[in-house]
Amino acid sequence: MSISGAIRGGLALALLGLAGFSGWIFSLPAATPTAEAPAVPPEEAAAMLAVLRQEGDDRPVIAVVGLNDATETNDYIATTGILRRADIADVVMLAAGPGAVRLYPALRVQPDATIAAFDAGRPQGADYVIVPAMSRDDDPVVMAWLQDQFRKGARIIAVCAGAKVVAAAGLLDGRRATTHWYYRAEMLERNPGIDYAANRRMVFDGKVVTTTGITAVMPMMLTLIEAIGGRSKAEAVARDLGVDGWDARHASAAFA
Fold it and tell me: What share of the chain is helix, strand, coil (3-state, %, to 5)?
């Protein structure tokens, strides 16, 4: 067979395959409409910002804590990067112990300090603590440190499945909270005292904040930037990141 004949035959087979695939696509049932995310009342949005606002004029310290064994990449790096871009706080990446933090699935990063070194240099604690998803929810060093930071007055912000870590530390007992949809049932089974809050990407209860899945990192960090540095600062960072909005709306029924 000539090369031109082979090409024509191949094109004919490709067209037949495409036609068959198109027919299969059109035979599929229509997609179920996604539920509309309910709006967040203005007073609720204002209350969220009020919870995060710091008293006083000092530049706040934000600690992003990671477990050396394995910490979720986006939760650890994106939170830090967004906050440092805003330049409204001193942001430090901490590790439970010495050495690099292994990020799953593949990377390793060198933190700024261990939590022990941080405590020695800042005994009054952080103003905010960001808690990513970790490979183990109940690491005793991390749990004890979170409890200590909370006692010292830090606002604890758990992103994605970091809520399971905060729950293991006992800081979600009796509080409204959310987490990544995949881990929701597990978290509630282990911690029946949690009041699960649907239809919110971010849930605020006292000085503890939880979020839904990985994509909630960006809205949560922009909300924190707005609380500390003002709306115009948050809008500037959002433009740099290509984000149009960052409110707490979430259609939780789509992830049931």
Answer: 45, 20, 35
